[in-house]
């Protein structure tokens, strides 16, 4: 059977976290929760005779992204009118950049099981977002709160060849935008959206096949499943000697398939021409270099530093640096108690604390446990003042009450019992209360030693130090065995 290779490029639309819109002074608000059409003026609603003004912060944020993606920043870029009719596009055109974009010819390295892969970036350009339609029975409602919000479009080259490549690129790019503090990455609110250009070709072929574009994918699930479906669909068509039609597709999550929307547009279909109301955007070299000098530590560099500075393994370093808020939380916890093991702090953070956050449905930025409190808890464990089992109980209490670990431990009497003189009477009592099990043990069923251990830990309410319990229990069982042999 003929095997086919996928060729995939992504267009990513990321809303920039500015205070105001791209070409007017209307505030940028959460369009998913705000009342419709409450952040709209004459400019973003497309009234005749109005003039746009470029948002300087949007330009600065876009340059920041371009530099982080290793792009060449254009000293002069130009805005154009992209003409098409759609109900949520009030002017009948979108102000975007076409022939002379802000940034070009960059790259983004992604991590795959096979190693690092470099995905080339074709361009990054500024534009304005559209409004939002809500379809109700017999009508469509238009909300223009989102209309005019600064949007950065990041276009990759067709360097991806699998769903795994696509997901790695999309997640890496989203993380980068979060680290730069230009986009929240909150896909549920539509602040970052993907469009995938997909084609397939016979393996070992260098010619590109006919491509389709899947529009408005607003989750990783939709992105990966849409791309996977389209690869399979196109491959099946070619095996049947049928042609792939170039068209724009939507993703139907209910049916789990792509659905045609319209024939695929080319640039000439949009009748681009320079925006007559905006002069060319000219950037001084000092402006660009100032932004470059203030770039934050980026995810790849931070991960490498975590590996070297904190001696973490690849998996833990990757999890910690996937989100900049998590990375900052971790480092704050390490700095709170420098004597603690960084690896132990990391394990408590991405293990038990992440579990509590997931159960509560909140993010690390809203965590009720401070980095200092988590590190203080780890210190109690490392100093043998409480054991791991008790620490999990304390952590859960801290998560609900907001108390510090010392207060929880003292109020509930959870300090660890670690002295042999304290554990010995508990062991003696458990053996005295279990004559049948002791007799069975002495007759050869040595696995009962683990049962005795569990009974001691239960009697001590989980506060006994396990290593000491095992030692004392083994000594008492040896005495019983010796006496049994004498008898």
What does this structure look like?
Strands 2-6-7-10-1-11-12-13-14 form a 9-stranded mixed β-sheet. Strands 5-4-15 form a 3-stranded antiparallel β-sheet, with no helix packed on it. Strands 3-16 form a two-stranded antiparallel sheet. The protein has 487 residues and is of the alpha+beta class. Helix 7 packs across helix 9, helix 12 (420-432) crosses helix 14 and helix 12 (420-432) packs across helix 15. Strand 8 (132-136) and strand 9 (139-143) form a beta hairpin. It has 15 helices and 16 strands.
Question: Could you outline the blueprint of secondary structure elements for this entry?
Answer:
Layout: E1 4-15, H1 56-68, E2 72-73, E3 76-77, E4 79-83, E5 93-97, E6 103-112, E7 115-128, E8 132-136, E9 139-143, E10 150-156, H2 163-179, E11 192-202, E12 212-217, H3 220-239, E13 247-252, E14 257-263, E15 273-274, E16 281-282, H4 285-293, H5 299-309, H6 314-321, H7 324-336, H8 342-360, H9 371-382, H10 388-401, H11 405-411, H12 420-432, H13 435-442, H14 448-459, H15 466-486
Parallel strand pairs: 12-13
Antiparallel strand pairs: 1-10, 1-11, 2-6, 3-16, 4-5, 4-15, 6-7, 7-10, 8-9, 11-12, 13-14
Helix pairs in contact: 2-3, 5-6, 7-9, 9-10, 12-14, 12-15, 14-15
Which features characterize this protein?
3-stranded antiparallel sheet, 15 helices, 16 strands, 3 domains, Arc Repressor Mutant, subunit A, alpha+beta
Strand content: 15-25%
Low-confidence stretches: none
Number of domains: 3
Protein structure class: alpha+beta
Fraction in helix: 40-55%
Major sheet, described briefly? 9 strands, mixed
The count of strands amounts to 16
Strand order of the largest sheet: 2-6-7-10-1-11-12-13-14
So what's the oligomer here? single chain
**Average predicted local confidence, pLDDT:** 92
Shape: elongated
What is the terminal-to-terminal distance? 78 Å
Total helical elements = 15
Rg, Å, rounded? 30 Å
């Amino acid at each position: 059977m003929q095997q086919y290779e996928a060729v995939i490029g992504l267009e990513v639309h990321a809303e920039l976290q500015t205070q105001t819109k791209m070409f007017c002074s209307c505030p940028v608000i959460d369009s998913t929760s705000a009342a419709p059409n409450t952040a709209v003026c004459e400019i973003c609603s497309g009234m005749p005779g109005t003039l746009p003004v470029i948002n300087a912060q949007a330009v600065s944020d876009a340059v920041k992204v371009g530099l982080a993606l290793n792009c060449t920043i254009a000293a002069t870029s130009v805005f154009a009118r992209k003409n098409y009719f759609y109900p949520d596009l009030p002017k009948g055109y979108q102000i975007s950049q076409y022939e002379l974009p802000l940034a070009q010819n960059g790259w983004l390295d992604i991590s795959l099981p096979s190693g690092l892969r470099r995905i080339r970036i074709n361009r990054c350009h500024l534009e304005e977002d559209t409004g939002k339609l809500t379809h109700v029975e017999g009508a469509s409602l238009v909300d223009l709160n989102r209309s005019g919000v600064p949007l950065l479009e990041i276009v990759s080259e067709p360097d991806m060849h699998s769903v795994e490549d696509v997901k790695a690129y999309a997640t890496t790019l989203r993380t980068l935008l979060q680290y730069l503090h230009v986009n929240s990455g909150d896909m549920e609110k539509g602040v970052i959206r993907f469009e995938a250009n997909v084609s397939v070709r016979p393996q070992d072929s260098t010619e590109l096949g006919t491509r389709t574009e899947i529009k408005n994918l607003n989750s990783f699930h939709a992105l990966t499943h849409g791309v996977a479906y389209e690869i399979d669909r196109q491959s099946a068509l070619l095996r049947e000697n049928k042609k792939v039609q170039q068209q724009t597709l939507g993703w139907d999550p209910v049916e789990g398939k792509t659905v045609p929307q319209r024939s695929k547009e080319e640039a000439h279909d949009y009748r681009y021409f320079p925006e007559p109301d905006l002069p060319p955007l000219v950037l001084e070299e000092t402006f660009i270099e100032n932004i470059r000098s203030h770039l934050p530590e980026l995810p790849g560099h931070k991960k490498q530093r975590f590996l070297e500075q904190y001696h973490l393994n690849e998996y833990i370093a990757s999890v910690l640096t996937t989100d900049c808020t998590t990375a900052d939380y971790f480092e704050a916890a390490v700095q709170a108690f420098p004597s603690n093991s960084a690896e132990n702090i990391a394990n408590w953070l991405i293990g038990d604390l992440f579990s509590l956050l997931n159960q509560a449905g909140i993010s690390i930025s809203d965590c009720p446990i401070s980095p200092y409190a988590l590190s203080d808890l780890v210190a109690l464990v490392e100093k043998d003042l409480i054991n791991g089992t008790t620490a999990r109980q304390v952590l859960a209490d801290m998560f609900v009450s907001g108390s510090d670990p010392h207060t929880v431990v003292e109020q509930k009497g959870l300090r660890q019992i670690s002295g042999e003189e304290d554990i010995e009477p508990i062991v003696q009592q458990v053996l005295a209360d279990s004559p049948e099990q002791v007799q069975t043990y002495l007759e050869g069923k040595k696995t009962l030693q683990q049962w005795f251990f569990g009974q001691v830990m239960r009697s001590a309410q989980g506060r006994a130090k396990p290593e000491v319990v095992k030692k004392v229990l083994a000594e008492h069982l040896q005495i019983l065995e010796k006496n049994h042999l004498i008898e």
